[in-house]
Amino acid sequence: MNFRILSISGVFFLFCFHAAFAQDSRLLITGLVSRLENGEILPDAVVKIKGTATIAQTGKNGHYAILTEQKTNITVEFIHYGCESQRIMITPELLAKSKNDTLRLDVQLKYKPQEFSVTEIRPGADTVIGNWRFFIEDYMFVDDRYVLLTWEKSLKEAKVMLVSESAGVISQQNIPVEAKELYRDYQGFINVLCKDAVYRVKVRGDNLSLAEMPYEDFVDRMLPCVDTLDNLILFSNYSRDYPAFSYFTYNPADTTVRKIRYIVDEPLMGMYQYEFDYLKPKDRLYARKMEMYTGVDKRIIAATMTGFSKSQFYRPIYAPMFVAHDTICVFDHYVDKLYRFDSQCRKLDSSSIDYHHPKNWRDWGRKLVQDEVTDDVYTIYEKGSFFYLKKIDLKTGKIAGSFKISNNYIKHIRLRDGFVYYIHRPYESVQKKFLYRERIELTKE
pLDDT per residue over 116-160, tens digit each? Predict the structure, then answer.
């Protein structure tokens, strides 16, 4: 009995000893990271223990806290884009200043005069534009320059900028209201879409300006238009909340309208129309009365009443149209066909398509993009956190080759003259969003 008590006591003593020893070996390092030249605090600075996976970053107030598993033989590294990195070795002299296993370590980083960078991140990917002062939220091409939608704290205080890779920021304007994204309309103009407003971006030489557009007219008359071909305007009556729509052409010379192609998701349309049958008698009566009053089909009204288009069973229809080499290409994913029409909207032929039915249906991103220069069309797949571009042969509808984008977790993919551009946050989540590009090098399937 006594032996067991001594043994248990000995084990308990050893446990406490090791726990105390382990706790005694840890060190909490805290402090402030700022600019050497003017004392400006530096949020989003990376603080890491060299040779380990221990990492932290400064908050909005420039402060950080990082816990190490040992007190000696360690080096703390401070990194911030736009400043020179700094390494500090924890010496016995520094440890002597610590209190209760906490060491205060304030650091001032020296400014590195590099407004923009064009540096290779990994084979195939390079930074087109990167600035540590602001995030790049969206972008558009203007000849050999770029129009950027940027922000420092939030999109409520966004700016639109005209920049180049060599000269940096050429001109900029504040956006009066909260911005959402950039949008190029069918006439080729770049616009800033906001919550309840829209501003046209005007570029004349090196000057950039904003002009407010009538919001409702823009939504009704500009957004439905897809492209132009010769003297025709191509548009659709697409609505996110209805599982069918049509493509049309409009001739401004004689105001004639012609239908190109009707797109419908038949299974989804069946579910959509059944919503009326599921209504209670009094709600059906209300839907019928609204039909008489508005002229809108009672089944559409019923689906609106039940909120079907906002449910988990509804998926917005996706069947894009592109103009490629004076040919109208309609990708009807609901009958597995690529339809081609000439400049007079006469049907030329069609091809079967199956790229939208991969083995794992989640891989297909329901997104097609067109190269603004070559007119090539690619579909996008996502596996894990990486994106793949697959070129579609516009004559056969088959996949002609595949390309994996080097960086992961990217957004706003656009193509121009054989390059893929996108926005990416380097070094995971601790740095600003930059604009990248890669040359598309296809490999066979």
Answer: 444 444 455 788 887 777 889 999 999 889 999 998 888 888 999
**Bridge partner residues of 208 (DSSP):** 203
* 3-class secondary structure, 302: helix
Tell how strand 102-104 and strand 86-89 pair up.
Answer: unpaired
Cβ partners under 8 Å of residue 263, min gap 6: 244, 245, 246, 247, 317, 319, 330, 332, 334
What would the two tokens of residue 65 be?
């806290």
Per the CB < 8 A criterion, the answer to whether 426 and 382 are in contact is no
Q: State the Cα–Cα distance between residues 223 and 234, nearest whole angstrom.
A: 11
Rg of the chain over all Cα atoms, to the nearest angstrom: 29
* C-alpha distances out from residue 138 to 161, 170, 204, 383, Å: 11, 17, 21, 23
Q: Please, what is the end-to-end C-alpha distance for the chain in angstroms?
A: 74
pLDDT tens column, 317-367: 999 999 999 999 999 999 999 999 998 889 999 999 999 998 877 789 899
Locate the DSSP E strands across 363-433. Answer: 364-370, 377-383, 386-392, 399-404, 410-416, 419-424
* Beta carbons within 8 Å of 56's beta carbon, 6+ residues apart: 46, 47, 48, 64, 65, 66
CA distance 190 to 179: 14
Q: Which domains does the chain have, with CATH numbers?
A: 2-109 (2.60.40.10), 120-139+224-439 (no CATH), 140-223 (2.40.10)
